[in-house]
Amino acid sequence: FVIDGTHFLAVANHRNGSIFTLNSVVFKWDGTGFVSLQSIPTKGAFGWKHFVIDDMHYLVVANRFDGSKDSLESEVFKWDGTQFVSFQLIATKGAHDWEHFVI
């Protein structure tokens, strides 16, 4: 996804063996490759979605499983100009993906 001409990439880390509580990473293009911008705590992350509302950029992660349960809060982050900050928690159950749409 792109914010103000800068390219970003969000990686959802689902698990490491039997460990599901892992940091997922947002990368930023530096002109020659993607470099780590920030590490975000996630629980069995399954996917990220970027979307824009009223010129504000958001990134939401689907938290699927924490190692014992799939009823978790997935999290919406808002771009503050330098990084993504927590904006809202949404109750989910075994979340796989998000889809932003306008009616």
Question: Could you explain how this protein is built, in words?
Answer:
- The protein is an all-beta fold.
- Helices cover 0% and strands 61% of the residues.
- It is built from no helices and eight strands.
- Strands 1-2-3-4 form a four-stranded antiparallel sheet, with no helix packed on it.
- It is globular and about 40 Å long.
- The model has no long low-confidence stretch (mean pLDDT 96).
Brief write-up:
The chain has 103 residues and is an all-beta fold. The chain is 0% helix and 61% strand.
Terminal Cα span: 22 Å
% residues in beta strands: over 45%
Largest sheet: 4 strands, antiparallel
Mean pLDDT score? 96
**SS field, number of helical segments:** 0
**What overall form do the CA principal axes indicate?**
globular
Helix content range: under 10%
Alpha-beta content class: mainly beta
List keywords for this structure.
about 100 residues; mainly beta; 4-stranded antiparallel sheet; 8 strands; about 0% helix; about 60% strand; globular
Annotate the secondary structure layout.
Layout lengths: L1 E2 L2 E6 L9 E9 L4 E10 L1 E9 L2 E8 L7 E9 L4 E10 L10
Antiparallel strand pairs: 1-2, 2-3, 3-4, 5-6, 6-7, 7-8
